[in-house]
Amino acid sequence: MDHSKQANSLRGLVVVWSVFALLLVSWVSPLLGLSEKRPERFLPDELRIIREYYTRSSTHGLPPGLAKRGGNLPPGLQKHLQRNGTLPPGLQKRLEPLPTDLNRRLPGIPDDWSRVILGRDVLLIDRRTNRILDIIENVIGLVTER
């Protein structure tokens, strides 16, 4: 009988420690970036921050190379822009980084992703595959068309 009491006590201890470990992991994992996989799109906060950045200040316009053309990409290249599409080599060369002060305001993204400007659009891309994860269309035009 003494043996069964020890076994029950040990089982109870294992259950308590298991529950404690699960609670600890669920509390610590978001702090370490181990939580659920981030959706492959712009988050609502990112959309808001990017739109506000380009609508509130007239000093944030088009990248210099696109300003000459009014921000428009050639029609043949523009048609390649679609969510989950692959960025063709002709467009890869035209990517501009987001302004540093805007990028600092945005939440972190996986290391293999980038937020970039292409024409009047802001893209979220996976650099490993050149896949377009998401697009905010004509956001930069919000400033230049005032």
- Order the strands across the largest sheet as they lie in space: 1-2-3-4
Stretches where pLDDT is under 50 for at least 5 consecutive residues are 29-35, 58-62, 66-70
Number of helical elements:
7
**How many strands, what sense, and barrel or not for the largest sheet?**
4 strands, antiparallel
SS elements, strand count: 4
Output the radius of gyration.
Answer: 24 Å
CATH homologous superfamily of the largest domain?
Answer: inner membrane protein cigr
Query: How much β-strand is present in the residues?
Result: 5-15%
CATH topology of the largest domain: Nuclear Transport Factor 2, Chain: A
The amount of helix comes to: 40-55%
CATH structural class of the largest domain: Alpha Beta
Distance between the termini: 85 Å
- By secondary-structure content and strand pairing, the structural class works out as alpha+beta
Written overview of the protein:
The protein is an alpha+beta fold and 146 residues long. The protein folds into two domains: 1-36; 44-144, inner membrane protein cigr (Nuclear Transport Factor 2, Chain: A), CATH 3.10.450. It is 42% helix and 14% strand. It has helices at residues 2-28, 44-56, 64-67, 75-78, 89-92, 100-105, 141-144; strands spanning 96-97, 113-118, 121-126, 131-136. Strands 1-2-3-4 form a four-stranded antiparallel sheet, with no helix packed on it. The termini are far apart. The model is unreliable at 29-35, 58-62 and 66-70 (pLDDT under 50).
